[in-house]
Amino acid sequence: MSLRIYNSLTREKEPLVPATPGQVGMYVCGVTVYDVAHVGHARSALVFDVLRRYLAFRGYRVRFIKNFTDVDDKMIARATQADVSVSELAERYIATYRRDMAGLGVAPPDVEPRATEHIPQMVALIERLLAAGVAYVLEGDVYFEVRRFPRYGRLSGRDPDELRAGSRVEVDERKRDPLDFALWKASKPGEPAWPSPWGPGRPGWHIECSAMAMHYLGVSFDLHGGGEDLVFPHHENEIAQSEAATGEPFVRYWVHNAFVNLAAEKMSKSLGNVLTVEALLRRHEADAMRLALLGTHYRNPVEFSEGRLEEAARALERFRGLFEEAERHPSGGDRGDRGERGRGSDESDGREAVLTAAADAERRFVAAMDDDFNTPQALAALFDLARTLHAMRSEIGTAGIAHGAAALRRLGGVLGLFTTASAAPSPDLRVEIERLVQLRGEARRQRAWAEADALRIQLDRLGVTVEDGPTGTTWKWRPKPSEA
After folding, report:
1. I need a labelling partner for 22 at 20 to 30 A (CA). Which of 269, 408, 460, 461 fits?
2. 312, 295 in Cβ contact below 8 A?
3. In terms of C-beta distances under 8 Å and separation of at least 24 residues, what long-range contacts does 305-310 make, across chains too?
4. Closest Cα partner for 115 from 197, 186, 203?
5. Tens digits of per-residue pLDDT, 238-277?
């Protein structure tokens, strides 16, 4: 079975056939860096991280581009409010975004272009649109004339005659049509500005992605992704301006992830920024977040809550015992606890059973991922393999556990799971953690707050999150992504 992907443009699953065999050019719309990343950003990042990982697993050479929007109206307003420059604001939130993505185990893109570093490419693209007669200048602004592009509305399935200016369509009575969108905006006093043939100003939101995608991937490329909120108007406008300028199809496959819905009863004002990635990672490990978000197919909404993360953490324990045992006996040697029954044909039969179970899990995993990246079914294959290994523990011995655990790590790694140096603290480290937690608890009982804080910092450096509650203190292991 070939890898099939749902194309938002055709609304069908289609075989993935890249323009260049064996290679995939992939562009994903990144964040506007005026605030910290939230769980919705995390879902989109994880979806395309997994998509990229799986393409590589299937043997494709992937060139992955993901941008930063580092100048727009929201950024200008936030910078003014914070009394900093737009560039300073951008640097601050680019750094926090990268830190949060690293915390989630999201691999960095091959290129992370910033809008402000590609102004010449945008100006050149706008000039092509003006020359083609599909754009017009209006008092230093430049607009794309939607009615000049007959195929407008194909991606979103909307009829241009029925569309009206909405919350994400700029309202300007000077425009020839409410749907016409800005390619270039004349600067206002105090705003960042760059020179152009139409006067100083800055690019519109939509033109940046077309210019950067074509700069790094060519006028036509394989895959463009983003959240479903970007279908209209952002991606619709990208298609219009790109194809009007080049006369070529812009993207072969459009991929969009659905929203994250919040369980309202779990939210309260007192929790403040509970749904930022930073705050969630302080309370939950990255694998739990990945498992919670990947347990729903990317095209379906995720019903998200703290409870869902706690369930994911408990589910991960099914793998932990297997990994710990494999790490305690890295040689895969017999533990000597099965007597003569573990030798000869019984041992051989146990190994064969593990090989068969692992092969079946991989077959199911690949079939699921080939079917439009069906992560819930892929995860089911991993859980079933773990369940089989636990059930066969006494028959397969350490060698069988080690082989099965290796298969779980390899397949889980395609989903960005189990990629830490250790999925659980080593026995020696666990003893040290318990000792420090106990010392901190004693310091708190004696109201030695400075000592308690110092011990918390020491635990944090070990990758441990400490939580104090009415029933006592608990701790959670927060493994760090592997450098590999």
Report:
1. 408
2. yes
3. 305/262, 305/263, 305/266, 306/266, 306/274, 307/263, 307/266, 308/263, 309/280, 309/283, 309/284, 310/284
4. 203
5. 999 999 999 999 999 999 999 998 865 333 334 443 489 9
Contacts 24+ apart (CB under 8 A), 338-343: 338/394, 338/397, 342/397
Which residues touch 221 (CB under 8 Å, ≥6 apart)?
A: 19, 25, 26, 27, 213, 214, 250, 251, 252
CA dihedral 339, 345, 346, 352 (to 10 degrees): 140
Structure tokens at 308: 């869902």
All residues at 6 or more sequence positions from 459 whose CB lies less than 8 Å from its CB, including other chains = 433, 436, 437, 440, 465, 466, 475
- pLDDT tens digits for range 294-351: 999 999 999 998 889 999 999 998 898 898 888 776 554 444 444 444 455 555 667 7
Q: Is 382 helix (H, G, I), strand (E, B) or coil?
A: helix
Please list the residues that pair with 6 across neighbouring strands. 13
Residues in the chain: 484
Residues 241 and 235: their CA atoms lie apart, in Å, by 10
**Residue 434, number of CB atoms within 10 A of its CB:** 12
Domains of the chain: 19-261 (3.40.50.620), 316-414 (1.20.120), 427-477 (no CATH)
Give the CA-trace dihedral at 82, 88, 92, 93, to 10 degrees.
80
Which ranges of 193-344 would DSSP assign to H, the alpha helix? 205-217, 236-246, 277-283, 286-294, 306-328
Beta pairing partners, 64: 26
pTM of the model: 0.83
What is the DSSP secondary-structure string of 164-176? ---TTS---TTSS
Q: Which of 20, 48, 149, 190 is nearest to 108 (CA)?
A: 48
Amino acid at 283: R
CA distance 64 to 50: 12
What 8-state DSSP symbol labels residue 185? E
Best CA proximity match to 238, nearest among 263, 217, 259, 267:
217
Positive or negative, the CA dihedral 289, 294, 296, 300 is positive
* First CA to last CA distance, the chain: 31
Cα dihedral sign, 306-312-315-321: negative
Secondary structure of residue 135 in the 3-state scheme: strand
Sign of CA dihedral 444, 446, 447, 449: negative
CA atoms of 267 and 264, how far apart (whole Å): 5
Neighbours of 4 (CB within 10 A): 15
